[in-house]
Design goal:
35% of the residues lie in helices and 20% in strands. It is of the alpha/beta class. A hairpin with a 2-residue loop joins strand 5 and strand 6. Keywords: Signal. It holds the Pfam family His_Phos_1.
């Protein structure tokens, strides 16, 4: 099927599960767990082989390979920088730094963890979407990147970032023309 002139069709695929996913922890650069790898390999038949924009993090590169896609490095798709909270669960952060966590969850411009604020992540992903050329493309990336793309596509405020859940291997389809996006989601 051909893409109409001037239309961008973008499939965003969330990386498969990792040990951090299972623990509900802020991720580091961990590999896929066995369950995630098996699930991704099972989905490979549903995707046409080809290139996929992909950050350098191991979990995304391994997911792309398991899906039968060729990872093409794109640093703008890197996960949110969680600073000193990387590897910690939300409960651990809440116990150690309750005010900092409340600040981060309540203010998209806050970065009490020393990492990237949500507003910076949203700006990075908005810029990446604006630079997409017409045609079809696939990206294998992180829940935070997909959340940011959804917020952008809907024209929602930054506070909506926390209202979007993205499960491992979830797929979001964005169709864009002239800076306007339409989305569909598959769990």
């Amino acid at each position: 099927m051909t893409t109409p002139s001037g239309v961008t069709r973008l499939l965003l695929v969330c990386h498969a599960s990792t040990s951090a996913t299972a623990r509900a922890a802020f991720p580091g650069d961990e590999p896929l767990d066995e369950r995630g790898l098996r699930r991704a390999e099972g989905m490979a038949r549903d995707l046409a082989p080809g290139p996929a924009a992909c950050p350098a993090e191991l979990r995304c590169v391994q997911t792309a390979a398991a899906l039968g896609l060729r990872a093409e490095h794109d640093p703008l798709l890197a996960d949110c920088d969680y600073g000193r909270w990387s590897g910690m669960t939300l409960g651990e952060v809440e116990a150690a730094e309750p005010e900092a966590l409340a600040s981060w969850l309540g203010d998209p411009g806050a970065a009490p963890h020393g990492g990237e604020p949500v507003t910076a992540l949203l700006a990075r992903v908005s810029g990446w979407l604006a630079a997409r050329a017409p045609g079809r493309a696939v990206a294998v990336t992180h829940p935070a990147i997909i959340r940011a793309a959804v917020v952008h596509a809907l024209g929602a405020p930054a506070q909506a970032f926390w209202r979007v859940d993205v499960a491992p291997l979830a797929q979001v389809r964005l169709t864009g023309r002239g800076g306007r996006w339409r989305l569909s989601y598959s769990p």
